[in-house]
Design a protein that fits this description.
By secondary structure, the chain is α/β, with parallel strands linked by helices. It folds into 2 domains: 192 residues, 5'-nuclease (Rossmann fold, 3-Layer(aba) Sandwich), CATH 3.40.50; 61 residues, Orthogonal Bundle (DNA polymerase, domain 1), CATH 1.10.150. The chain has 12 helices and 6 strands. It has a 6-stranded mixed sheet, with helices on both faces.
Length: 280
């Protein structure tokens, strides 16, 4: 039986990556769907390289329940409208290409990745789950060498040992670690005076924040627990029943129109060749 890898892609990160990369080169002449085209080519490239089972999570709405928990949490405020306008088209293009897409509203794309990883992990046919994102909070999902995190730019694969080497704590304590040191990408500051080294030392000594001695964090304890709630991904979303639903089988009829709109009609032929290769 072939080695089965389930690929879970952070569509929000990919859209940001392509948008800002393209903007550096084109400045004010960027095509309105340029980032969508970049992500589409990236995902298709994964399929052409052998990915058979994959899903893409996006933040259909940037705000989530976490904005109610912490007012400073990341939001769409200040985001370039040209970037925001590409989320919907990206979801439609990928769906037309035959890729499973999870557009998140009340929860975040990271919660979808967490939920998808847990569902895939339960399937004995799955040899590895690869989560394609550099986001620190996704490190909490890593499990041995079966659920790994892949950094798109560096192609570095992080298993549980790599997570501990980088952060000084095992994957299960990543939410506690982020609660202490903060996460600027998500908009919460952590506990004043505690940096990465001290955070890992405390967590390795006491375990999760709930087990800390009452006086260890003093008045910062409740705020640290709140930040842990922000950093803890929700992994119980019933996105799909089994990994067979993630198998890529080729594009639908709408994809040809999208390929023309994106300015790359050759995408259709590439998809057809990829589908034929998987069928052989």
């Amino acid at each position: 039986m072939p080695f089965m890898i389930v690929h879970l892609v952070d569509g929000t990160y990919e859209l940001f990556r392509h948008y800002h990369g393209l903007r550096r080169w084109t400045k004010d002449k960027m095509p309105p769907l340029g980032a969508v085209l970049g992500v589409t080519r990236t995902v298709l490239g994964m399929i052409e390289s052998g990915a058979t089972h994959l899903g893409v999570a996006t933040d259909h709405v940037i705000e989530s329940f976490r904005n109610e928990v912490w007012p400073g949490y990341k939001s769409s405020a200040g985001m370039d409208p040209a970037l925001l306008a590409q989320f919907g088209p990206l979801e439609e293009v990928l769906a037309a290409m035959g890729v499973v897409v999870w557009p998140m509203v009340e929860l975040e794309a990271d919660d979808a990745l967490a939920s998808a990883a847990r569902i895939a992990e339960r399937d004995p046919r799955v040899d590895m789950v690869s989560i394609w994102t550099p986001d620190k909070d996704l490190a909490q999902l890593v499990s041995g060498d079966r659920i790994v995190q892949v950094h798109r730019r560096t192609r570095k694969i992080m298993d549980a040992g790599a997570v501990r080497a980088k952060y000084g704590v095992p994957p299960a304590l990543i939410p506690d670690y982020l609660a202490l040191v903060g996460d600027s990408a998500d908009g919460f500051p952590g506990v004043k005076g505690i940096g990465p080294v001290n955070a890992s030392r405390l967590l390795n000594r006491f375990g999760p924040l709930e087990d800390f001695p009452p006086d260890e964090l003093g008045q910062e304890r409740e705020r640290a627990l709140l930040f842990k709630e922000l950093a803890t991904l929700r992994s119980q979303v019933p996105l799909f029943e089994n990994v067979d639903q993630l198998r890529w089988r080729g594009p639908n009829e709408a994809f040809a129109d999208w390929a023309r709109r994106l300015g790359d009609p050759a995408l259709v032929e590439r998809c057809q060749w990829a589908a034929k290769s998987l069928a052989d």
